Amino acid sequence: MSRKLLLEHINVPGINTLEVYRQKGGYRAVEKALKTLTPEEIVEEVKKSGLRGRGGAGFPTGMKWSFLAKPEGVARYLVCNADESEPGTFKDRYLMTYIPHALIEGMIVSSFALGAKVSYIYVRGEMMPQIRILEKAIAEAKAAGWLGKNILGTGYDLELYVQPGGGAYICGEETALLESLEGKRGNPRIKPPFPAIAGLYGCPTVVNNVESIAAVVPIINDGGDEYAKIGIGRSTGTKLISASGNLVKPGVYEIELGLPVEEFIYSDEYCGGIANGKRLKATVAGGSSVPVLPANLTLKLANGEPRLMSYESLSEGGFATGTMLGSGGFIAFDEDQCIVRNTWNFSRFYHHESCGQCSPCREGTGWMEKVLHKIEHGHGTMEDVDLLWDIQRKIEGNTICPLGDAAAWPVASAIRHFRDEFEWHIKEPVKSQSQNYGIANY
Ligand code: NAI
Ligand code: SF4
Asked: Nearest CA to 12 among 21, 3, 25?
């Protein structure tokens, strides 16, 4: 049984309220941090924990915090990225819905560590219920003296605001998020400078994912060293995984990093296997932005050893035989699913969400979508597969923000591992479409 640090009390009735959250030990980390630790000591604990950013990039959180510039007389900000929009990823929404105080507690401790006096939770615009839940929880916390002026009599002041996003996927990219928070169109900025140097209103800013901030609570309660004992290698701690697709038990699971992928998919503690007795065909392990892997490479490394749910093991073999943990959006496809159709579906998404600032992404995502549509709908040629390969290569690495790469990688990996399926669509357009849609072609 995996240890639970974030979801331990998920089934306790009323855990979304301050009263029950407190009964279960909530806000101990705030007391410990504000009364017994200095901001530098908190940063040190987070460094020791080995926590890596849970939004998708896996950048070491403590290192990011230590990069924060501290010029005299200039405000610093902590911004929580709750703009969760990655297809297949819904773990932050789950945490905010059921244990909102875990995020608020993490925000208070992290803001104190970073010297922020005003902090924001930027929530995806479509998540109105979660916005209301957070606002209610913040009001509760403020009324109880955990937020506002002179928290716990320590002299530390913190105002915490919830900002609804505008509903664009690109606003989850941290610099686009900051632009949006400043009231502008959410276009990504060129990095560097990183937000740690020039972020919100040009001031030093840390942008962290919801899960990363919530993980600071057990790190402070138990110590960074204890946290680092969980997991494997440089993948320390626990990770929330949003599991979806053709699974017996889709849902949000907290795993200890290092769990074998096979156990995650097939054991009753987690996903319970593939639904309807079907066989696993492929997975995307970390949200739609990461390469798709066929079943054999999902379960085993190229050398035959079990693949693990960790940053290193999932990316073992590079993109030739590996993928990425990303945001932990785990999607399973059974033997009846069509990789071409799915790739087209992802491409439509990225084309729609491209902000249009850079040509390779703006033009390339639309072009890939059109070619995939053509193949999927029975009008493709063999040259189209090579064309697709060529387009994605010209996008990757040539854009301002990672959306370009995110659009390219699913296409590249689908062709790399499932080229025969693309060719089948071209050679047998009627059969392949009949399988996907009945006879209908839309
Ligand atoms: P990144 O690798 O550029 O940056 C990661 C973090 O480290 C950022 O906060 C950045 O500011 C910081 N950083 C990196 N180098 C730094 C330096 N030298 N100095 C100071 N700070 C530094 O990746 P990015 O663009 O933040 O995230 C991309 C990931 O986001 C993708 O892997 C994707 O999986 C994920 N993603 C997640 C979504 C979700 O809904 N959870 C949606 C879309 C993408
Ligand atoms: Fe916009 Fe795409 Fe360029 Fe990112 S890669 S800045 S989404 S056009």
From this structure: 21
- Angle at the Cα of 216 from the Cα atoms of 210 and 217, rounded to 5 degrees: 105
- The whole-angstrom separation of Cα 302 and Cα 322 is 9
Does a cis peptide bond (omega within 30 degrees of 0) precede residue 193?
yes
Helix (H) or strand (E) holding 225: helix 224-229
Closest ligand 2 atom to the C-alpha of 357? Answer: 8
For 276, 376, 423, 426, the CA distances from 434, given in Å and listed in that order, are: 21, 11, 16, 13
Q: Cα of 220 to ligand 1 centre, how many Å?
A: 24
CA 405 – ligand 2 centroid, Å: 10
- Among all bound ligands, the one having the nearest atom to the CA of 398 is 2
**Closest listed residue to residue 209, CA positions, set 58, 99, 98, 28:** 58
Which DSSP string corresponds to 312-352?
HHHHTTHHHH----TT-EEEEEETT--HHHHHHHHHHHHHH
| CA-proximal residue: ligand 1, atom 24 (nearest) | 57
Other beta carbons within 10 Å of 58? 20
Question: Model-level pTM?
Answer: 0.96
Rounded to 5 degrees, φ, ψ at 240 are: -80, 130
Residue 268 to residues 169, 239, 246, 295, 327, Cα–Cα distance (Å): 33, 18, 15, 19, 23
Q: Is residue 397 lining ligand 2, measured as CB closer than 6 Å?
A: no
By the 8 A CB rule, do 335 and 281 touch?
Answer: yes
φ/ψ of residue 397, rounded to 5: 80, 0
ipTM for the assembly: 0.96
Amino acid found at 146: W
Q: Which of 22, 14, 25, 12 is nearest to 222 (CA)?
A: 25
Task: For residue range 140-174, list pLDDT tens digits in order.
Answer: 999 999 999 999 999 999 999 999 998 899 999 99
The Cα-based distances of 355 to 48, 189, 293, 363, 410 in angstroms read 38, 11, 28, 11, 19
Residue among 278, 286, 276 nearest 324 (CA): 286
Of 52, 174, 361, which is best to mutate to test ligand 1, by the most ligand atoms within 8 angstroms of its C-beta? 174
Q: pLDDT tens-digit profile of 322-374?
A: 999 999 999 999 999 999 999 999 999 999 999 999 999 999 999 999 999 99
**Ligand having the closest approach to the CA of 362:** 2
